[in-house]
Design brief:
The protein is mainly α and 415 residues long. The protein has one domain. 76% of the residues lie in helices and 0% in strands. The chain is built from 16 helices and no strands. It is globular and about 65 Å long. The chain starts with a helix and ends with a helix.
């Protein structure tokens, strides 16, 4: 009788563990769906997901994730940031604030362990894409019917900002084009055509409605990557030719795109002439100063949370763009190197490389993960996206979920 009761209790606990694990997976889906829309909702859902996910994880699986380069290097970068607070010559408030930007990296090994076990990873990625499709429809609706009542600070940008929206649209567009090419190889023409049309709806929004300049540069890299993935070097050359033709046509047809490019050129000339500060001028000044900050403390940097202090000191007695302060050098490598030196920058680059290697195989999962990592690496040459809220969480969840799926597929192939 006692043994029967024990077995019943064990089964009940096992069932509960499975139910909580399912809830954790669906909570991750909810996080992905919320990312394009609400910072507050994303933060709450991440807490809900962590509370559900952590008790269900096998310690051996988590240790295995931490022992891997893909899961261990983000934690190593976080640990360096923790140590970096010891030699930062700023207030503890600034040190802790700077340290906070690294915390989300700790989530990557947790996601790798969860979705190496779970079968629901694709639901997370599809949930994000479906959410961005809804955002696309709303964006076009506001463009076609501008009189609609909405929080419309920028035309065609329903929520958050045009930089994030353009990046989300670009990620989904290139992902859909890759899937469409795979479908065409299998002669599923209708599905391939539908996916291509949806991808071009994303791209048209980028070209004609709203986008950041960084997204345009990232688009070049992702399109070339798409061509190479599909047909090797011949595909890369073909992608370059197609992008050149379509890009030229887009520039000719889109007054918005021409205005964005013309603004960049005029701002660059103004910076060279030391005229009034502009977005381009500020970015270039930040990069110029960042190099000098790293040169003055090249090995271990100025300490965690020191970016603002470095810019404040450099702005004393300056005018124009050179007088501007910042806590963001608009370059992820410099954002790490200023605080943690070349040691920290080396760990960051190694982490990116490990994540690229994680998606070196074929198939849909590898393609989606490769897009997420490549987009982040290229965009981080002009931004500090790992420290930005939505872009940072997009990278963490994208790499963690897709990476766990890739590891699960490799485990299956070995059996």
């Amino acid at each position: 009788m006692t043994s029967i009761a024990t077995m019943t209790l064990f089964r009940a606990k096992a069932f509960d563990r499975k139910a909580v694990a399912q809830f954790a997976d669906w909570s991750a889906v909810a996080v992905a769906v919320s990312l394009p829309w609400s910072t507050s909702a994303t933060g709450i859902l991440i807490v809900v997901w962590l509370v559900a996910a952590l008790p269900t994880l096998d310690l051996g699986a988590l240790r295995r994730a931490l022992a891997s380069a893909a899961g261990g290097l983000p934690v190593l970068l976080w640990a360096l940031a923790a140590l970096g607070m010891l030699w930062a010559d700023v207030s503890w408030h600034e040190r802790l604030h700077g340290f906070g930007a690294f915390h989300r990296l700790l989530v990557i090994p947790v996601l790798l362990a969860e979705f190496r076990r779970s079968e629901n990873g694709m639901r997370v990625l599809f949930g994000f894409c479906a959410s961005v499709v809804v955002l696309l429809l709303l964006s076009w609706l506001l463009v076609l019917f501008p009189a609609l009542a909405w929080r419309n600070f920028e035309p065609g940008v329903p929520v958050k900002d045009y930089i994030l929206q353009g990046e989300e649209f670009l990620i989904c567009a290139v992902a859909l084009l890759g899937i469409a090419l795979d479908q065409s190889r299998e002669r599923r023409w209708r599905r391939a055509a539908a996916l291509t049309i949806l991808a071009f709806a994303f791209l048209a929004n980028i070209v004609f409605v709203a986008t950041g300049r960084t997204a345009l540069l990232v688009a070049v890299v992702l399109v070339l990557l798409l061509g190479y993935r599909h047909s090797g070097w011949k595909g890369l050359v073909a992608a370059a030719l197609v992008f050149g033709v379509l890009g030229g046509a887009a520039g000719f047809e889109s007054s918005y795109l021409r205005a964005r490019l013309a603004t960049s050129v005029s701002e660059l000339r103004a910076w060279e002439a030391r005229d009034a500060p502009s977005s381009t001028a500020l970015h270039l000044e930040f990069l110029k100063k960042s190099m000098s900050f790293v040169a003055s403390a090249p090995v271990i940097g100025h300490g965690t949370g020191s970016i603002g202090e470095q810019f404040r000191n450099a702005a004393v007695g300056q005018t124009g763009a050179a007088a501007a302060g910042s806590v963001n050098p608009h370059n992820q490598i410099f954002a790490v190197a200023i605080q943690l030196g070349l040691v920290g920058a080396a760990v960051l680059l190694a982490m990116w490389w490990a994540h690229l290697v994680l998606f070196a195989g074929g198939g849909l999962t590898a393609w989606l993960g490769l897009i997420i990592v490549t987009q982040n690496v290229v965009a981080c040459l002009f931004n500090s996206h790992l420290f930005d809220y939505t872009q940072g969480w997009l990278y963490v969840f994208g790499v963690g979920v897709a990476g766990g799926m890739a590891l699960r597929q490799r485990d299956g192939a070995k059996q």
